[in-house]
Amino acid sequence: GENVEQHPSTLSVQEGDSAVIKCTYSDSASNYFPWYKQELGKGPQLIIDIRSNVGEKKDQRIAVTLNKTAKHFSLHITETQPEDSAVYFCAASISFGNEKLTFGTGTRLTIIP
Amino acid sequence: DAGVIQSPRHEVTEMGQEVTLRCKPISGHNSLFWYRQTMMRGLELLIYFNNNVPIDDSGMPEDRFSAKMPNASFSTLKIQPSEPRDSAVYFCASSFGAGGTYEQYFGPGTRLTVT
User: Fold this and answer.
1) What DSSP state is assigned to residue A93?
2) Do residue A99 and residue B48 have CB atoms under 8 angstroms apart?
3) Please, which pLDDT band fits residue B61 given cuts at 50, 70 and 90?
């Protein structure tokens, strides 16, 4: 089955700096890669996703890049703010017939004011 | 919409007792997922339903765990008998999709402690 590895497990950045979280996946058939943000005491919430037919997607301060050849994808957060502090999870799945998401182990991001 | 509703939010029980976790998905969603989150194992999919039918239960740890979805607006996850290693946060999520992959909306979770 699919295996998703995520790095780093913890990340601290100064407010205003950029943060990058990286994930690799094992199943070359995976074609859907969402990122979820989990705040303390809450369930994960989707913040951005990308499908394998594109290499990059942006939404304001958040961007995701995908390298299908290398089987890795990354989350980029620019101009970080205190409210970006949370745990971030990457995930992968083979869509169209299987909605099962395999999650990475999570990255605890701390924004230092 | 109220979002995905889970009850109870916290459950403390003794080893050997039966535990039932409940979930009400978002109205109109046709897929429902049960996850377990622990520090050691992260976020694991236990089982998911599509149109009330179990599609993949390969993540259910053992026979002590069972899940049902009697109708489109309600699902239960039951553990009988419970063990201390079942202590975790259990999330229910729902999505609207048919054959594709769509955003999963997570509930607030149930924190289970088995002593």
Assistant:
1) B
2) yes
3) confident
Could you tell me the two tokens for B26?
């978002």
Q: Which of A45, A93, A102 sits opposite B106 (nearest CB)?
A: A45
C-alpha span between A73 and A60 (Å, rounded): 18
Which residues of chain A lie closer than 8 angstroms to B31, CB-CB? 99
Tell me the C-alpha to C-alpha distance, in Å, between residue B23 and each of B7, B8, B37, B67, B94.
7, 9, 16, 11, 10
Tokens of B111: 């924190």
Q: Using one digit for the tens of pLDDT, what is the confidence trace for B73-93?
A: 999 999 999 999 999 999 999
- Please list the residues that pair with A23 across neighbouring strands: A6, A73
pLDDT digits (tens, 9 = 90+) for A17-56: 999 999 999 999 898 899 999 999 999 999 999 988 888 9
